[in-house]
Specification:
15 helices, about 40% helix, about 350 residues, alpha/beta, two-stranded antiparallel ribbon, TIM Barrel, eight-stranded parallel β-sheet
């Protein structure tokens, strides 16, 4: 059962520019999102999956990662449900909510879980300038845990506020990844996972390769040795050892390499390193279609190259962690008619 845990879909109504591939620029002239016609073309998603041997894709929408407008969120969610219904067993939709507007967010999450049947909700790695462990977001996290929705965290389509990111497309190249790592460390140290023991979180992109920095992270968690013990904001510690949360509480998808060319080579290299850094039991297969990779043959080559990495990689592709994140995933995919 091959499930692609990161596919992107934008409803046609929100694709203001439907022409050629182009980078959307922010107010400072920095690229912050790829405007790709394939985002609105679910037929291309299905053809890609058929070619690559992927059973189903989990859909999220960049326009909803940090969307304060409830009406836009509802539009996205309704179109996600339509995609699920129009292609039985091929897509799983995620909820999009105005996370900082607690009452609206909770009501929309309930609608998505009960009426639309979504198993998860997606948010950006920071929301309107606020960190994901901020007090303003506690109602969102509690509701997700209470309702039983897992939370998918994706980099926010915005350049982080650091002036040195204003050249070389660094906002997308490195800034997005930095934002993911910061979110992961803050969520663990904030005690959020201790407070909500049933909460499941999926970080995109191996949490930006967070495992490669563990030697440094573990070291600076020793507050007494680094002079931060007793400094409120810098002495936050979870109840259990830091590695417990990395290995047992967070999930990770294997997207994060930047294509679209050389998907088999560069994508497999990214996955090979990632699988050495996080627990296999927490790792999910993903392509980041149609942003990181766009051609069906390239996706097929990527899948084959990942499988060739060895038994752990094959187990990940075949969904060894899928039911830990979505317990009824087999029932969902059993609806497939073609």
């Amino acid at each position: 059962m091959v499930i692609d845990f990161q596919q992107h879909y934008t409803p046609p109504e929100l694709m203001k520019e439907r022409g050629a591939l182009s980078a959307r620029l922010d107010e400072n002239g920095n690229p912050n999102y790829l405007l790709n016609p394939l985002l609105a073309d679910l037929g291309s998603h299905v053809r890609m999956m058929d070619r690559a041997g992927i059973d189903a894709g989990v859909l999220s929408c960049g326009a909803g990662f940090d969307q304060p407008d409830l009406a836009v969120c509802r539009l996205i969610n309704d179109r996600m449900k339509q995609a699920v219904d129009d292609h039985p067993g091929r897509f799983i939709g995620l909820a999009h909510v105005p996370a900082l507007s607690s009452d609206n967010a909770v009501q929309e999450m309930k609608r998505c879980a009960v009426d639309l049947g979504f198993p998860g909700v997606v948010v950006g790695s920071e929301l309107q300038g606020q960190a994901l462990d901020s007090e303003a977001l506690r109602p969102f996290w509690r509701a997700a845990a209470d309702i039983g929705l897992y939370v998918f965290i994706h980099p926010l389509p915005r350049v982080i506020a650091w002036a040195h990111m204003n050249a070389d497309d660094l906002g997308r190249m490195l800034g997005w990844q930095f934002s993911l790592m910061v979110a992961a460390v803050r969520i663990i140290n904030s005690g959020l996972l201790d407070e909500l023991p049933t909460l499941n979180i999926q970080f995109s992109h191996f949490a930006a390769g967070l495992g490669r920095y563990l030697g440094r992270i573990r070291g600076f968690q020793q507050r007494e040795k680094w002079g931060t013990a007793g400094i409120a904001r810098h002495d936050r510690r979870p109840r259990l050892p830091f590695d417990h949360y990395l290995e047992q509480r967070l999930f990770y998808d294997c997207a994060g390499w930047a294509g679209p060319d050389h998907a088999a080579e560069w994508g497999a290299e990214w996955v090979r390193f990632g699988l050495q850094e996080v627990a296999l039991s927490q790792t999910l297969f993903a392509t980041d279609y149609p942003q990181a990779v766009r051609e069906p043959d390239e996706v097929a080559a990527y899948v084959a190259a990942v499988r060739a990495l060895g038994p752990n990689a094959r187990a990940m592709v075949d969904g060894c962690a899928a039911e830990r994140l979505i317990p009824d995933v087999s029932r969902r995919l059993g609806k497939r008619t073609s």
